[in-house]
Amino acid sequence: MTVYGRILLAGAGSALVLTAALGYQYLGGLAPCPMCIWQRWPHLVAVLLALLAVTVFWRGHKLLASAGALAMAAAAGLGLFHTGVERSWWQGPSTCTAAEPGSLNAAQLLDQILVTEVVRCDEVVWEFVGLSMASWNAVLSVGLAAIWLFAARAPLPELQRPT
Fold first, then answer.
1. Is the pLDDT of residue 159 over 70?
2. By three-state DSSP, how is residue 102 classified?
3. What value does the mean pLDDT take over residues 86-106?
4. pTM score, two decimals?
5. What is the CB neighbour count within 10 angstroms for residue 37?
6. Half-sphere exposure (CA, 13 Å, Cβ side) for 90?
7. What's the CA gap between 50 and 147, in Å, rounded?
8. DSSP string covering 5-17
9. Alpha-carbon distance 154 to 150, whole Å?
10. What is the DSSP string of 24-42?
11. Binning pLDDT at 50, 70 and 90, where does residue 60 land?
């Protein structure tokens, strides 16, 4: 496979991950938590890098492929962090986990619930073979990072000159 084929494969992989996430959100009715949204950004960056690498900046494919690998490493790290929050291995951000009601009375707690739309990051809402969406994102992102790294190491094909 050529360097461009690897880059396109990695970019298409990220595009598929984004498409699946948006499909689950808009067609499946699974509202994303803030950490789910964070995990989408590196994939968007990877898609844009792939497009740039095979069109405008094709001579800079090594730099762009390295950046794609870093984006996928970030996606894998975010997916692993989110998995840890879901599995209660560590505490997640306060913006998407349920806080203890503390000293709030029932009326204050009800008022807080009614005005706050919180999708919790510390609950697994979808699972396949024991892995949550965040876990699958981490696994797929590691694979995509490897493809990006193979692309970064590949030599640029020689241009064919007319004779």
1. no
2. coil
3. 71
4. 0.79
5. 13
6. 7
7. 12
8. HHHHHHHHHHHHH
9. 6
10. HHHTT--PPPHHHHHHHHH
11. confident
